Amino acid sequence: MTPLSESGDAICRLPPYALLATLAVPFIVLEPAKLFAICWGAVSHPVQSVMLRLIAQVAATLKCERIFHVGYEPLMHIGWFNRPMTWVIKLRDLSAGPGQRASEKPLFPACARACLMKWTRQRRQVVPSTLAIAALRPW
Known about the structure:
Number of strands: 0
Number of helices: 7
């Protein structure tokens, strides 16, 4: 068993309100880091500010998504949490279009991979240089 699956099992065994507190921890830790990044950029550290902001945003998104995904069932037992989340999920599915759920839409990484493969195929094609084309002209 991998450490990630073990942590997922441990998170899934938590009671609903403990799981909600676990979900709040990345916000409590990483949201001040984002605010600090903005302030850091204001005092002439733009590169470091952007890097810290990106790292904090990605870490918060990945961590919260993992906790929410693993603990979805226990979290839905909390009534006041269930109602707005059900509404948000329905709204997300409506935005996908008629007869299609948002989770069934192609994900960005798959689209990005297809674009990258197309780009690399185009780059592999031999493009004759302008000198070679000029040498082939009869005039």
